[in-house]
Amino acid sequence: MTPGDAKINAAMATFDLIVVGAGIVGLAHALAGARRGLRVAVVERDARACSASVRNFGFVTVTGQEGGATRRRALRSREVWAEVADAAGIEVHQRGAVIVSRRPEAFAVLEQFAAGAMGERCELWDVRETRRRVPQVREAIAGALSSPHELRVEARDALPRLAHWLEDRHGVTFRWGATVLGIDGTRVRCGEETLDGGALVIAPGAGIAAFAPALAERIKLRHCKLQMMRLASPRADFRLPSVLMTDLSLLRYAGFASQPAAAALRERLARECPASLSNGVHLIVAQGTDGALVVGDSHHYGAAADPFSSTQVDQLIVDELQALLDILAPTITERWLGYYPVADVQPLLSETLAPRVRLVSVTSGTGMSTAFAIGEETLSLLD
Questions:
Q1: How far is the CA of 115 from the CAs of 65, 73, 105, 112, 205, in angstroms?
Q2: Residue 300 or 383, more confident
Q3: Is the dihedral of CA 58, 64, 65, 68 positive or negative?
Q4: How far is residue 351 from each of residues 73, 130, 208, 263, 364, measured CA to CA in Å?
Q5: CA–CA distances in Å: residue 286 to residues 129, 229, 268, 276, 296
Q6: What residues pair up with 273 in beta bridges, in sequence order?
Q7: Cβ burial, residue 268 (10 Å; 0-12/13-18/19+)
Q8: What is the DSSP annotation of 251-267?
């Protein structure tokens, strides 16, 4: 053994599983490992999670997800979220989702969806029932679909609580503010410390190129930028029963967009709101227990993470909000940008880089909805 080897061994900690990245995908893999009785370490370059996993709605979405693997993962992840939220003290702000159709063509999509297998336990509401259940909606609607499956947490609060619970309850070791300087098999060097793992999962979010540049080029890695905002509560008695979506959302979610009636809806929306379509705008409205509304979003794609937001796009989102809900003059208290990776590999990139080393990244913007199931899948592959 050389003096250099002796120094490395003296500073080396050993784990059954090392996870690089403490976003929701990384934490989901840490949970899956801990539940298998593994000694788990998580290495995160930032002092806390601050990227895509905390810049979203915290909306665990089932209804409207693409059928097959994505929907199965969303259903399973929703179960895990419910378990974890209760155990970790994570507040569930809203449950369920209501997709309000403003146009007859949108309601036709909802009818077809509800009649199929993915519409299980969903309810169709006519105009009168929709306005009774959600009195804040404007009169010019066609009806709604109510889903019981969803739940929403406040992502910026939920991720730190989840990490703390994993450390406190499951003994997961965290290395915050630790940049990975090198990877050799399942051995990870960060700063002066080297971690030796029986298996390694790299969950880099959009940072795939930092760990596998050739892979990033092969899958044509790109970035999707989202614009989102927080609004002050419109009034003291303004309470939404669940998360709301509307017509434009039906083109963003494959489970809805795959219905035959979606073609007619797309044609009408192309005539009536081409700017919203070209900017990838659709409306999600979520409400916290303090009454504030989280509203968004838009979708812009590029090779780099464009840091600039557009007031025009914000206004498109607000216009859609006001067309749906009786909110006269919304007060915007926060604006932010979110990012997630997109690639030719959809909806999930799960690649073996070396024996017992996998790189996992959700390339469809569904990380909050599917990550817990993905973590379980990955760990079963590493058994």
A1: 16, 22, 16, 5, 36
A2: 300
A3: positive
A4: 18, 45, 11, 35, 16
A5: 20, 11, 26, 20, 9
A6: none
A7: middle
A8: HHSHHHHTSTTHHHHHH
Question: 40 forms bridges with which residues in the sheet?
Answer: 17
SS3 at position 286: strand
Token digits for 117?
């297998």
pTM here?
0.94
Q: How far is 102 from 81, CA to CA, in rounded Å? A: 31
Four-CA torsion 335, 340, 342, 348, nearest 10 degrees: -140
Q: How far is it, in rounded angstroms, from Cα 35 to Cα 48?
A: 23
Tokens at residue 153, please?
């947490």
| Ramachandran sector of residue 37 (left: φ over 0; alpha: ψ -120 to 50; beta: rest) | left
Specify the 3-state DSSP secondary structure of 76.
helix
* Model pLDDT, residue 11: 57
**184's tokens:** 């050799």
CA 214 – CA 37 distance, rounded (Å): 34
Strand 40-44 relative to strand 173-176, pairing: parallel
**Please, which pLDDT band fits residue 287 given cuts at 50, 70 and 90?**
very high
Phi and psi at 310, nearest 5°, equal -125, 125
Per-residue confidence (pLDDT) for residue 47, from 0 to 100: 83
Contact residues for 251 (Cβ-Cβ < 8 A; gap 6+): 257, 262, 265, 266, 269, 277, 282
